[in-house]
Amino acid sequence: MDRLIYTSLTTMRGAMSRQSSIAHNLANANTPGFRADLAEAQSLWLNSEQLNTRAFSSEEVQAADMTPGAVTSTGRDLDIALSGDSMLAVQAKNGDIAYTRRGDLMLSNSGLLTTGDGLPVQGSQGPLSIPPADRLYIDEEGRIWIVPVGGDIAQPQQVEKLQIASPAGSDIVKGVDGLFRVRGGGVLPSDPDARVTTRSLESSNVNATVALVEMIEASRSWDTQLKMLNNARDMDAATTDLMSLS
User: Fold this and answer.
1) Residue 181 pLDDT
2) Is the pLDDT reported for residue 29 higher than 90?
3) Which of 18, 40, 200, 209 could be cross-linked to 81 through a Cys-Cys bond (beta carbons 3.0 to 4.6 Å apart)?
């Protein structure tokens, strides 16, 4: 009986983890450049001194879906969509260098260039600080151009270049903050062939309809295991009643 109970419990924990990852994906269905979490099940053997007779299922977020999202034109000068598998370097909240596909760039009051969620964008010399300008835009190579205050609009000046990296050949992992990092530490190499689609944004690759169906399946799995626990309890009670007969 204990095997049935613990098997159901591990399956319920997996369903909870799956529901959490699906809920996180749905919450970011409208986040530019978001890559959906992938929850996968794996077998965990119960080690013993003799034979490994039991294996439990553990379902956790193991990777991210790297399928590109749709690119739509916005007409905004600071919106960019990265081509291929390139990634934009940003400074995470803990100060580490991390990478994202998010391209809704913003300019703070202090002149700091950030992503839409407030993370400083990295250039060749660190976080990008833009001087006051009448106009600011980014070209297809990721170079940042400005027209200084009172300057000639026909003679823009390049002030910096976005730090765009290539994950090809590197082992990257997605963190709980939604940013990508090199597993074990380190930085990704610069991508000299990187190109960006200007005045456009890459949408999240989360399919809300599919995610909702997966959420329903995870909920049904939970209900099924709960019924198995109730059945196990009823069978245990019936066995106790039989053993109590004189």
Assistant:
1) 94
2) yes
3) 200
